Amino acid sequence: MSNNHMDWEEEFSFENKKSESNEFLRFIGRIMRNWYWFVICGFLGFFGAFLYLRYSIPVYKIHAKLLISDESKGGGSLSSSALGDLSGFVGGKSSVDNEVEILRTTDLMRKMVLAEKAYISYFNKGRVHDVPVSTAPFRIDLLTDPDSIARSYTLEVQFKERDKVQLLAPDTSYQVILSQPFTLPGVGVLTIQQTEGETFKENYGFRISPVRAITASFSSRLSVSTTNKSVSTIDLGFEHNSPEYGEQLLTTFIDKYVEMNLHDKNVIADSTLAFINVRLRKITDELARVEDRISGYKRRNQLADISQQGKVLIESSVSFTKSLAEVETQLAALDVISAYLQDTNNPRVVPSAVMLQDGGFDVLIQRYNELVLQRERLLLANTEDNPLVQNITSQIAGARQDMIANLSSTRRQLELIKQSQQGLANNVTSQITQVPTIERGYIDLARLQQIKQAQYIFLQEKWEETAIGRTANVSNSKVIDSPKAQTYPFLPKRNMVYSIGLFLALLVPLAIMFIKELFNVRVRGMEDIDRLNQLPVLGMIAHSTEKEQVVVSKTSRSPIAEQFRAMRTNLEFALNGGKRILFTSSMSGEGKSYVALNLAVSLALLDKKVLLMELDLRKPSVTAKLGLPAGKGFSHYVVRSEMKVEEILMPSGVHENVDLLQAGAIPPNPAELLVHPRAAELMEALAARYDYILMDAPPVGMVTDAQLLSRYADCCLYLVRQDYTYKEQIRIPNDLAATNKIKPIQLIINDVKARNGYYSNYGYGYGYGYGYGYGYGEYGLASRRKWWQIFKRK
């Protein structure tokens, strides 16, 4: 018994063994059955895409290209200017990657928005949507700070008589006078002026938005990228729905970038010039005072000339004093630069060109200033916690330490030079003391004058050098391809929109089919039977709209009659010499009595004696369907031992060879009656009288009566009704067969609706679909529908 059980388990495993080609054909079949929905949805999707393209606002892409002077990749034409050597005093080189980050900053975009007043836009009001325009018959001027705009407004402008204008919004309206200031809540003070030579022929309006919002919107439309790593060019792209206005905006954006770039270069020069100007004013005042003292000294002492010895001493003293002055000036410059380097929290550019020629220190200053400017640029778009900013900060700290070390070394050298010169100067001073007192006083004043004059000349030379270098400053970027808009819109993409519209439209019926299949719990077709069932299918019975219960007769040639004949032929092989057939199902309403009755007539047409037993003792229905009066039946025979078989047999009225054995009175214990010894005796007696015995049993999914009756049956026919039987109930007959609770079961698929598709002519039962070539519609069996009936339910 255990071995048989194992064999059944292996035979009735519920794995899907169908080929992928069959699954694909089923899918194609479902699509073919609903082809008209795909056609309708495809047309609607295509039409929707057409409407979207018809009323969508096109977006154009504006392109421009910049050339950046990059030291690592060749500076290009910018580095070959005649004054390039002087510009090295005040500027450093910027890498392409850094310039890309600067171009992406919102601060730069904000400057463009403010310059173009892009926070105010105009539109032409249409019936479907508003069409943006670059110009309008009027102009809006904001008299207050643009940063005061706190909310957005979209107002339609309607001109009235006598220079009156009405501004309309969905929830409010304003009436203002042309050229007169008016206040808009949340925005500020504005004026509206009519453009000269323009008249209102259409409805126009304007939209005003916060500067921050417009800046963010424009930043999202801007694309900045390097052409490739081997060149120092930057590609700019900007998206806008007006090609002319978009070109203007991108041009202004580039101009603001160039201005900011020049400003960064001029910061160092301005810092140096400011330092030199302060020193020049101080030295000029000191030199003037010394000259005034010399002039007064000569008048008081009536000096016209001094001796030759005094002149020599004075010249020597002046020479040493001039050297000391130069040393003092360089020490003062070192002090200034040291003061700049002491501020570690807020690095500033260091003034250049204030020291004597020192190639090493000039390189350090240039490197330090370049790093400080790079840090300031990065901070425009990043915080101090950004890794790039922290890297630059660490490099600045390293350069500062190198400069401090260089300054210390230079200071020590200058101190040694100062001591040497001071010794020589003291020696000359001791010689001067030997000249007359009046001449010695003059020599002291002349020496002081020479010192101040040397300092003045030195600073004046540096000022001229720095000023020339500042005027020679040029931007490190050059426009090599001016902003130009594409001829055709960038968005929307017509082919893509049509493709997406068609795809989404076709996806709708597929999604509906999937959802419908997902939530459908009933058997809908043979694909469900194949997927969930491992039992053989004896035959399939098509859907019928006839009210008669018996559709099989001697002269009938309808498709259903032919299906019962085909099932009769298959039944001979299934019985294998037996004669007792049990009909059951999962639940009531699946057509057991209907199929049993017509199969009985079909067998009787072979001139066989057929008995139809109404063994659904709980809810008999065959007698009522035949319109016969209730009489004695199975329950009476079992409980009355004196009753004979002839008393409970009666003609069915549907065929002379078909008899009926009614259920009889509904007993309180039907299960016990079915296994009563009298029931077994009755079955043996009936088997001797009839060629075929058809037993209409209760649903096996509800009670165990069918399992009890299976002991008398040679074959069990299990009814499955399309669109009625639950999918999970298909497992019931398979479990019964696997556990050997009922003798070998075969399925009958009832109430099959004809559908176009893969299974429309499936050949189960040696003839399903037989007769479809002639008269299929005249029997009321779902004839082929006309084209105007495609919206009717199947």
Automatic annotation (TrEMBL):
Pfam families found in the cross-reference section: AAA_31
MF annotations from Gene Ontology: ATP binding; identical protein binding; non-membrane spanning protein tyrosine kinase activity
GO cellular component term of the entry, any: plasma membrane
Keywords, alphabetical: ATP-binding, Coiled coil, Kinase, Membrane, Nucleotide-binding, Transferase, Transmembrane, Transmembrane helix, Tyrosine-protein kinase
Transmembrane segments: 35-55, 496-515
InterPro entries reported in the protein's UniProt record: AAA_dom (IPR025669), Bact_polysacc_biosynth/exp (IPR050445), P-loop_NTPase (IPR027417), Wzc-like_C (IPR005702)
SUPFAM superfamilies: P-loop containing nucleoside triphosphate hydrolases
Record's catalysed reaction(s): L-tyrosyl-[protein] + ATP = O-phospho-L-tyrosyl-[protein] + ADP + H(+)
AAA domain boundaries: 581-709
Coiled-coil annotated residue ranges, if any: 273-300
Top-level class of the enzyme under EC nomenclature: transferase
Entry EC number(s): 2.7.10.2
Keyword DNA-binding: no
Family: Belongs to the etk/wzc family.
Protein name: non-specific protein-tyrosine kinase
